Target: Fructose-1,6-bisphosphatase
Amino acid sequence: MAEEAPSTDIITLTRHILSDQIRLGPAATGDLTLLLTAIQTTSKFIATNVRKARLINLIGLAGELNVQGEEQKKLDVLSNDIMVNSLRASRKTSVLVSEELDDAIIIDDTHRGKYCVVFDPLDGSSNIDAGVNIGTIFGVYKAHSETGDVSDVLRPGREMVAAGYTMYGSSCNLVLSTGGGVNGYTLDAALGEFILTHPDIKIPPRGKIYSFNEGNSTYFHPPVINYLNSIKYPSAGKSPYSARYIGSMVADVHRTLLYGGIFGYPDDKKSKSGKLRLLYEAFPMAFLTEQAGGLATTGRGRILDVEPKSIHERCPVFLGSRDDVNDLLKFFQEK
Ligand code: AHG
Ligand code: MN
Ligand code: MN
Ligand code: MN
Model:
């Protein structure tokens, strides 16, 4: 059989978001396109630093604690600075919230645009030094206020106009939704371009994998313990689920979107609101999960409907395949 000729019509991320803008007609100003272009550049820049980290002394601690009391790694700080500089320079943003900054940044008049970006510059810090997958997570709101105010980002995740993440792994993948489904792109390092490789990602309605840090089981509440037991010790004739837990939300969610199953970081007796941050971890990942046809819940309600009170607040997260998340919810309803 003759080999297929290589494609001469590749779809780059820039081409794809530009065609989306054209589809929306003259009402679309192109500002979101330019903002997403700036974000993809930050991902390339962070990716090259992640690859070289061991060689250029970018491994290890930066020597400061962030607002949540975590020790910042050098790559956390560098990635944050890359994001802030690029987003400000894009002239398309008005408010920025980062995991690594105590307060929201209100962009000065000369650089102000109409979008607000919430981001986790480097997700999975504990995995950096071992070369395990890490990522960047972002969510985008359209500003309400004229001059930029923290209230522009203290809004439910369902109001986001775009969300996505980049995973720095065996390949570098950017996964993005602007509200019309989810698309995945792979960085072609030779071209320096993200190429559309995963069009219209749909999460399987049921999976076979669960992804929780079971080391915290002693603190878990009964609904979570009972659910985990139900998938580990299923009724006769059914197979137990496989466990996969990387400890980088980006990598665990990426696998869940592609293979299906359930990812969870519950609230428990020790962490009253769980660990993951609502604005820049839970919301963007919930947005992508729903756009891919899955469910994302706190156990008590839809994540995207939570009304944030402060920029660094935390929230319990359970997301993934529709049937698996519904199974978990039955245990919460029993309570
Ligand atoms: P970050 O590195 O941005 O602080 O996020 C870490 C988060 C997330 O990536 C992951 O899902 C979770 O922490 C893992 O926590 P445990 O080590 O407690 O399992
Ligand atoms: Mn952190
Ligand atoms: Mn994180
Ligand atoms: Mn982080």
Summary: The pocket of manganese (II) ion (ligand 4) is lined by residues 76, 99, 120, 122-123, 125 (CB under 6 Å).
